[in-house]
């Protein structure tokens, strides 16, 4: 059977563990709030009414693409494209190509950062492989101006962080929605988790600080995972409504 992502790919290892994906989610939730094109996510009203669900759907689509066979993965990518095209038709305007690139870039970046936080440093080849998977997603979606090599992606990623992010009224509102839907304790956990994975510019724009109270706790968490008791911790901190979906992200 032909796969969009090879069964032995590092990308499947990255996206095969729910806790790694949760850190990808944490990073994306921070960056979505700062993106200059976040008004597009507000246009349908789905983001402010259900920010966790909206962000989780983005992560879920990526997970589906990575573990599906080739034809199913292409179908999922085309579905994402059609959803965005429908929003563009309703608004009678096009989502900027740089905004599409930003989403792909953050998935690449937080895949690498989250895995390295919880597992080990990736090799150059593994980072290139991670880039290539999401590059092919972007090509299928018809996104223009994509970098074709890992090195050029790194340069463009840095440029996008400097040019396409700012703290706005949307940022403040989205973080209020995060807190409303998560509650104060889980919201605190989210912010502390974001500190561990987001770039310095994003920490500064969000006023997150540079040091997370969880920095030393990561070592303890790795031990809990080795002892197979990390699920008890996740069950305590995860919202009840998302527990089945998050559990389904773990791939044996």
Name the descriptors.
252 residues; mainly alpha; 0% strand
Q: Please, could you describe this protein's structure?
A:
The chain has helices spanning 10-14, 18-34, 38-43, 46-49, 51-67, 70-91, 97-118, 124-141, 150-163, 169-182, 184-197, 200-206, 217-226, 230-237, 243-247. With 252 residues, it is mainly alpha-helical. The protein has one domain. The longest helix has 22 residues, at 70-91.
What's the quick description here?
With 252 residues, this protein is mostly helical. Helices cover 73% and strands 0% of the residues.
Residue-averaged pLDDT, rounded? 87
Q: Based on helices, strands and strand pairing, what is the structural class?
A: mainly alpha
User: How large, in whole angstroms, is the Cα Rg?
Assistant: 17 Å
Domain count: the total is 1
Helix content: over 70%
How would you sum up the major sheet?
none
Beta fraction = under 5%
First and last CA, distance: 19 Å
Write the element-wise H/E pattern from the N-terminal end onward.
HHHHHHHHHHHHHHH
- Poorly predicted runs: none
Q: What is the total tally of β strands? A: 0
Count of DSSP-assigned helices = 15
Give the overall shape, derived from the CA principal axes: globular
Summarize the topology.
Elements: H1 10-14, H2 18-34, H3 38-43, H4 46-49, H5 51-67, H6 70-91, H7 97-118, H8 124-141, H9 150-163, H10 169-182, H11 184-197, H12 200-206, H13 217-226, H14 230-237, H15 243-247
Helix pairs in contact: 2-5, 2-7, 2-11, 5-6, 7-8, 10-11
């Amino acid at each position: 059977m032909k796969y969009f992502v090879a069964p032995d790919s590092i990308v499947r290892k990255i996206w095969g563990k729910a806790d790694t994906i949760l850190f990808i989610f944490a990073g994306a939730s921070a960056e979505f709030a700062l993106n200059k094109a976040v008004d597009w996510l507000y246009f349908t009203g789905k983001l402010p009414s259900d920010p966790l669900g909206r962000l989780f759907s983005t992560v879920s689509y990526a997970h589906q693409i990575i573990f599906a066979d080739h034809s199913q993965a292409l179908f999922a990518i085309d579905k994402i494209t059609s959803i965005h095209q429908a929003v563009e038709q309703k608004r009678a305007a096009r989502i900027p190509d740089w905004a599409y690139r930003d989403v792909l870039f953050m998935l690449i970046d937080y895949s690498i950062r989250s895995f390295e936080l919880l597992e080990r440093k990736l090799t150059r080849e593994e980072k290139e492989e991670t880039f290539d998977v999401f590059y092919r997603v972007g090509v299928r979606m018809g996104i223009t101006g994509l970098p074709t090599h890992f090195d050029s992606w790194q340069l463009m990623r840095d440029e996008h962080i400097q040019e396409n992010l700012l703290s706005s009224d949307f940022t403040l509102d989205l973080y209020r929605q995060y807190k409303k839907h998560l509650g104060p304790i889980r919201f605190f956990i989210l912010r502390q988790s974001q500190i561990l994975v987001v770039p310095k510019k994003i920490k500064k724009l969000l006023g997150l600080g540079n040091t997370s109270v969880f920095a030393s706790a990561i070592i303890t968490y790795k031990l809990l995972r080795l002892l197979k008791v990390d699920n008890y911790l996740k069950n305590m901190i995860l919202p009840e409504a998302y527990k089945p979906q998050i559990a389904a992200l773990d791939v044996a």
